[in-house]
């Protein structure tokens, strides 16, 4: 079970991990952690905090992260469960199609899907949070990684019709779903441990939220290969959160119609390369580079770094805090780059 001091110390360890002097790091981490713990305790009485959202809870917040490959084809929308994901990566697959890697830890949706097939870079992203990885299908390289035991996983190719169920209101390959109950059942059957929580990310304290600055970013459009896969975000001043849209349609849950509401939008520019005749890609998730961070209707230029498999924002070499809540990470190719892929508006809704 993660106590506040352990959670905050873990995040601060991440912040100072780039220092070369180990004893200096230990001293800096201890001082910073003690200071942050005192600030947080003064602000709130929560006894627990979820590591990937920074949201406080009176109940236990431990538990392994679960990363699910979610279909983002127009025929698969609206999806199920995305509104409960702590972190979602949106990344190109073959052609101009984007897929979503939804990481769940603080909330457990009843149903998730449609579930789609794995690619090696999605597996790497899931591994960064030591997640149990859920997919239905795989590319040859992804299959090789899974067969070698690179990550604990459940795949619909082995459990189609058992742990994974086909919905009758959609056609294959857009109709594979899994319940969270079946995820836990599959984990138990395969002896996958599910109690260990991921390390905590770094978050603003309540007092620090008013210090967020930057250029106005009430609206953002991220263009991929076609209008069908463009993602847009609109900031709602009353909610203090971003709403998400695909091709102009708001992203909501298929059953409950609850909207996806986002606190951090992290747009990352990376090298992409087509590597085979099927249009499969290699994506550089290690080198770091340019990025934009949207929070509270503001945007700022940052850089991204890969820290133990996690894609995180940095400013002037230091980890940039996240607003407590949900985070979406859009990965775009360096060609055409952020300038051509992303546009902003300043009018609020």
UniProtKB/TrEMBL annotation:
UniProt cross-references to SUPFAM superfamilies, sorted A to Z: YerB-like
Top-level taxon of the source organism: Bacteria
This protein's UniProt keywords: Signal
Record's keyword annotation contains ATP-binding: no
Domain DUF3048, first and last residues per copy: 52-190, 222-329
Pfam family, one: DUF3048
Gene3D superfamilies in UniProt: YerB-like
Signal peptide: 1-22
Protein name: DUF3048 domain-containing protein
């Amino acid at each position: 079970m993660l106590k506040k001091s352990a959670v905050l110390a873990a995040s601060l360890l991440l912040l100072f991990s780039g220092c070369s002097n180990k004893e200096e790091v230990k001293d800096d981490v201890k001082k910073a952690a003690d200071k942050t713990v005192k600030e947080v305790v003064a602000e709130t009485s929560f006894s627990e905090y979820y590591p990937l959202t920074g949201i406080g809870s009176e109940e236990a917040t431990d538990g392994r992260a679960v990363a699910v490959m979610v279909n983002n084809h127009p025929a698969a929308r609206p999806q199920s469960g995305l509104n409960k994901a702590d972190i979602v990566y949106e990344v190109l697959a073959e052609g101009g199609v984007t897929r979503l890697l939804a990481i769940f830890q603080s909330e457990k949706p009843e149903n998730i899907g449609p579930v789609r097939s794995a690619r090696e870079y999605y597996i790497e992203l899931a591994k960064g949070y030591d997640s149990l990885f859920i997919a239905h299908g795989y590319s040859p390289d992804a299959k090789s990684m899974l067969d070698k035991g690179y990550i604990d996983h459940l795949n619909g190719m082995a459990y189609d019709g058992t742990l994974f169920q086909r919905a009758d209101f959609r056609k294959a390959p857009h109709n594979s779903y899994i319940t969270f109950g079946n995820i836990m059942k599959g984990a138990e059957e395969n002896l996958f441990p599910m109690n260990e929580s991921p390390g905590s990310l770094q978050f603003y304290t309540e007092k620090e939220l008013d210090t967020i600055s930057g250029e106005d970013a009430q609206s953002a459009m991220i263009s991929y290969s076609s209008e069908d896969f463009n993602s847009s975000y609109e900031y709602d001043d009353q909610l203090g959160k971003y709403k998400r849209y695909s091709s102009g349609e708001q992203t909501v849950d298929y059953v409950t119609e609850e909207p996806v509401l986002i606190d951090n939008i992290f747009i990352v520019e990376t090298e992409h390369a087509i590597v085979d005749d099927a249009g499969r890609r290699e994506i550089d998730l290690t080198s770091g580079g340019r990025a934009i961070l949207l929070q509270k209707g503001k945007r700022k230029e940052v850089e991204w770094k890969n820290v133990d498999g996690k894609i995180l924002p940095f400013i002037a070499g230091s980890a940039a805090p996240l607003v407590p809540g949900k985070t979406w990470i859009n990965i775009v190719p360096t060609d055409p780059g952020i300038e051509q892929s992303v546009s902003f508006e300043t009018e609020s809704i």
